[in-house]
Amino acid sequence: MSAQQQLSAGIAALGLALPDGAEAKLIAYLALLDKWNRVYNLTAVRDAERMVSHHLLDSLAAVPYFQAGSILDVGSGGGLPGIPLAIARPELQVTLLDSIAKKTAFLLQAKAELGLANLNVVTSRVEDFRPQTGFDVITSRAFSDLKEFVTLTRHLLKPGGKWLAMKGLYPHEEIAGLPAGVKVSADHALRVPGLEASRHLIVLEPVE
Asked: What is the spatial distance between Cα 200 and Cα 189, in angstroms, rounded to a whole number?
């Protein structure tokens, strides 16, 4: 099965409706990631079939939980989940944040080549990032443990905002170690087509 067929089948299995041209952009993004990966080591997954399931479909499985507004993808690396999110939901304003310039160079190239007007790329350590306004949703996929994630990004969350952390196995220990003032408001078990592994999207909110 080609990457295109695998992606189409996966999107159908997830029940996602994507805008016109989104699948072609996702495949183009994968090709870019593969090309730059040879030089910059953006991801450990190098096999095309695994890249579709582990990167694209893994990110797309979380799309239904991103409703509207501004999204910050912290420690974005190769652009996951931010770039698939921006492609799947053009109405979202997605900011990709990474402290490593060679990674943000790739992200800027991807933004330009894929024509993603709703994407913003920032090179900064998260604790030094001070935008004029905060974000409705802050997400990450393998940035750090939950305590560090919410502590480092708390100043970036808008009032009424929430964190959506993409995790593998349900992180019992990390949740037990959350700081006071943060609660788990939802846990969504994600089923990723082609991935025989546990995936959870943990929703966290400040406690008033």
From this structure: 5
